[in-house]
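The material for today's practical consists of a large collection of protein records. There is nothing in a record beyond a sequence line and a structure line. Backbone structure tokens are a discrete shorthand for how the chain folds in space. Nothing more is needed to start thinking about how sequence determines fold. As an example, a complete record with its sequence and its structure tokens follows.
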Amino acid sequence: MPIKIRDSLPAQKTLESENIFVMTEYRAMHQDIRPLHVLVLNLMPTKIETETQLLRKLSNTPLQVEVEFMQTASYQPRHVESNHLETFYTIFDEVKEKKFDGMIITGAPLDYTRFEDVNYWEELCEIMEWSKTHVHCTLHMCWGTYAGLYYHYGINKVDLDKKLSGIYKHCVLKKSSPLFRGFDDFFYAPQSRAMTVLKEDIEKVPELELLAISDEAGVTMLKTKDSRQFFMTCHPEYDADTLAKEYFRDLEKGMEPEIPINYFPDNDPAKKPVVRWRSAGQLFYSNWLNYYVYQSTPYDVGRINGKEKI
């Protein structure tokens, strides 16, 4: 079944070339079914790349998913054309009266920055508070995870001495969780960050449940016990060359980055990376969308509130 997107979104051609069933607004208008409404707060500077990665993962289920992209109003991105934002993005004031089945809060390149020093921090806090009563299930990614844990539970990030970049092995802690249906006991996923949270800080919060961890990369996936909020530090949606682009970009800036771990064959940046995370990444997003959004959200989206148990 398809992923529903705005007419003419740049990701459409890329996804269609990969035989991913994409449904435009015009075609969806002629179908009499209730699509899932998913809001994506895209904080990444590489807007189009992030859009394509997420849409690719959200598309591989027998569900019709209506995706709406949102940007911050308090900070205007500088790495994407304003026409793209005006055409395909909304702001919080335009959606705050709506309710959504699911929401994704992406990461952002804000390593070593205090949350309170982020230009749009107050706006993000307002959105995260709003999500408690207007979103059935919210997925936080990378920096969005650290922001969410700090805002909702007062768990502060711990800055790392150097950037964690590469493909890391992760252990599934709760094998019976529907989130890991189809997963092996261990899975690989990209990491790209210079921050972490401590396992012991997570364990101090009764509402939180640790789901996956890595010996090298630390806490990887967790959720609230009512399954209304998910937090993920890794990037299972990354393309094969995403880490390579980041590495060469930092190299050109004179930052002397370390070669991503377990990524280039023979640790040689001249060689094409071998993908080991695509299947686990697809399972993760499909399982989240199916078991924690579709199967538990009210049919009447207006009934979403902050009280249901999932």
In short: The radius of gyration is 19 Å. The mean pLDDT is 91.
